[in-house]
Amino acid sequence: MIEAMPFTPFHIAFPVDDLDAARAFYGTTLGCPEGRSSAQWIDFDLFGHQIVAHLKLSAKTDAHHNPVDGHDVPVPHFGVVLPMATWEALADRLRNAGITFIIEPYIRFKGEVGEQATMFFLDPAGNALEFKAFADISQLFAK
User: Fold this and answer.
1) 5-50: per-residue pLDDT in tens?
2) CA 88, 90, 96, 99: dihedral to nearest 10 degrees?
3) Which run of H or E residues covers position 125?
4) How far apart are the C-alpha atoms of 94 and 115, rounded to whole Å?
5) What are 99-131's pLDDT values in tens digits?
6) Contact call for residues 134 and 115 (beta carbons, < 8 A)
7) Is the peptide bond before 76 cis (omega within 30 degrees of 0)?
8) In this structure, how many other beta carbons lie within 10 angstroms of the beta carbon of residue 94?
9) Count of domains in the chain?
10) Beta carbons within 8 Å of 27's beta carbon, 6+ residues apart
């Protein structure tokens, strides 16, 4: 078994087909501060995690979907587990920005072990994002 470590930031690089659209979406719509950038990539601070949008023309691809809870969950996807109040504020921010949800914000496992809020949406390049929050964060990996 791997020893538990304190939370550390993750890093993910992903393709986008338009850096200006990525800058507007991640920087303005999601409110991610911008870090270093070049003509080929942009670093963003996604709730303390480093994500990097890399220019790749024709980045859009058909996503695979798996059935979960009666929804078609896009694979691959990435996102962050947030505190519930932050998740709710983000959901409101996205609704106000007119974002189209793949899976509307909702609560899974209501009243059960692992109760969690979740929502899915796409960035302008078609990358799927999921943001979650747990009623009790200690149940993040509960079975």
Assistant:
1) 677 899 999 999 999 999 999 999 999 999 999 999 999 999 999 9
2) -120
3) none
4) 22
5) 999 999 999 999 999 899 999 999 999 999 999
6) yes
7) yes
8) 19
9) 1
10) 33, 34, 44
Bridge pairing between strands 11-16 and 101-108: unpaired
Q: Write out the H or E segment, with its range, that includes residue 19.
A: helix 19-22
CATH number at residue 103: 3.10.180.10
Under 8 Å between Cβ of 16 and 55: yes
Tokens of 95: 């609704």
Which tokens is 123 given? 């960035």
Which of 17, 13, 73 has its CA nearest to residue 46?
A: 13
Residues recorded for the chain: 143
Does residue 4 fall inside a structural domain? no
Please report whether residue 123 resides in a domain.
yes
pTM for the whole thing? 0.88
